[in-house]
Design goal:
With 198 residues, the protein is α/β, with parallel strands linked by helices. The chain is built from four helices and 17 strands. The strands form four sheets. A six-stranded mixed beta sheet has the order 3-6-11-14-16-17, with no helix packed on it. The radius of gyration is 18 Å and the shape is globular.
């Protein structure tokens, strides 16, 4: 079985470079573990090895659910309605997700919660704005940087623009990527991968 790029990078390191990498990752591991625990104490469901900002964790509620090995770089997520994020999802910096609106044709202007589900292996690039009219970003979908997403995104669809429109279908998902390594949150995987070469 061939090794992944991640395995090759870690296993080909010198001992000194390995320990320097482990030290840098350990500091981030402590921070990300703390953020996960803060979010969980506030009622959120957070999976293993998931990376999220402490600012989002401190606002978390039971409306937030994130699967395993996901990387969330933004705290601009509206948690007044359920937000379900799957496994191996990448959400870039500056992404804003709005999950609620109001009844504009009502004299009472009632609050209207919608919520959103972002399925496994989706990638939402930097500064995407997702409006409440989008309730689902399906498995493997990609939302291009700076896009305005106003409706559901189909499985493996690549969308971009304002409003976002379908460009093409993705050929495969990032199944061999160690998503948590994007922000240095891969301490446990890093140690295990190094030990595999022995």
């Amino acid at each position: 079985m061939s090794r992944t790029a991640y395995e090759i990078d870690v296993q080909n390191r010198t001992v000194l470079r390995y320990y320097l990498g482990a030290f840098a990752r350990f500091k981030k591991y402590l921070l990300y573990s703390y953020a996960r625990n803060v979010a969980k104490r506030r009622g959120a469901k957070i999976g293993e090895n998931t990376v999220l900002p402490l600012t989002l964790a401190r606002r978390a509620t039971s409306n937030l659910e994130i699967g395993n090995n996901s990387s969330v770089q933004s705290d601009l997520i509206d948690l007044r309605a359920p937000v379900k994020i799957g496994n191996n999802v990448i959400i870039g910096s500056g992404v804003e997700i709005i999950t609620c609106s109001h009844q504009i044709d009502s004299s009472e202007w009632e609050f209207k919660p919608y919520g959103i589900e972002i399925e496994d292996f989706a990638w939402i690039a930097t500064r995407v704005l997702i409006l409440p009219s989008c309730r689902k970003i399906s498995r493997g979908a990609v939302c291009g940087a700076g896009s305005l997403v106003t409706r559901n995104v189909d499985q493996m669809s690549v969308v971009s623009g304002s409003p976002a429109s379908h460009l093409k279908f993705r050929k495969q998902v990032h199944s061999k990527l160690v998503v948590e390594s994007l922000l240095g949150g891969d301490f446990t995987r890093y140690i295990k991968t190094w030990n595999l070469k022995r």
